Amino acid sequence: MKKLVSIVALVCAVCIGAAAQAPKGFPMYYEAHDGDTTFFDSIDPIWVFPRGRGFKRNGDWRKEYRLVYNFNKIYPYALVGRKMMAQVDSTIAADASRRSQRTQYINQVERELLSLFTSDVKHMTTSQGLLLMRLVDRECGMSAFDIIKEYESGFAANFWQIVAKLFSQDLKTRYDPKGKDAKIEELVQIWDSGKWESFYYSVFWEAPTKTVIKADRLKSEVKKKKKRR
Description:
- This protein is mainly alpha-helical.
- The chain contains eight helices and two strands.
């Protein structure tokens, strides 16, 4: 009898100890109707759609998966390029009153750009490099040839045009949103609409990788000529 009492006491002690512990889990909403209790909970929203069928406009984008992949990686560089070009133009207009100042500043910008982007460009494929040229033209409103001519010289532009011709490319070709660049333009419109992540997911069934760029502003400045005392 004493043994039975001891066992009962031990069980009671365990139950009391368990009751004294902080409850685990989390509270749930519930409703009681006619003696039945219904519990409610919520889950985080997710995207659910068939693979490759989202945003199907001019054909199946799965056939253009390489273009979509390259665009996701390259377009941020074109956007930064537009921002930096605007910065260079405003700096030249405000501070470079002399041709020597302008030349010195452009050379400084060139060195900074090489420092920032040489490694990234070296790891781009040929198709990614060509896509970058198309997108820079779109964002900056100038062909690669015109950009070189504007900021370097006509001789430099013509030299690189000859090099491009050797690889069956043309630096003077302009961006054509309604012609051969129509698919690129469609991707730009999807990006600008804020639907890029869901579109990319519909093609690859995974979230897009974010392109990380070291800087979106230049540190180069026009050097002021020291005044003589």
